[in-house]
Amino acid sequence: MPLFGWFPQMRNRDSVLNALNGRSDHGRIEIKKILPKISFTLSLQMRSKLLLLSQHYTFRFGDKVQQMKIY
Length: 71
What we know:
Helix content is about 70%, strand content about 0%. The protein is built from 2 helices and no strands. The longest helix is centred in the last third of the chain and has 40 residues, at about 30-70.
């Protein structure tokens, strides 16, 4: 599997690469315009992963508290 296949945020990699190489119809796109979009997507994904992890550990902690109350 290619490296980009592991990162769904890079699904438009061909258009990004073409733009960076100056082969797109719109001419060159500055890296300054592309990086914030990629960075924003990555930060959203990281936030959602952290939220899921925090919920997972909250539930596990809650289960432990419940077990302690039973005994």
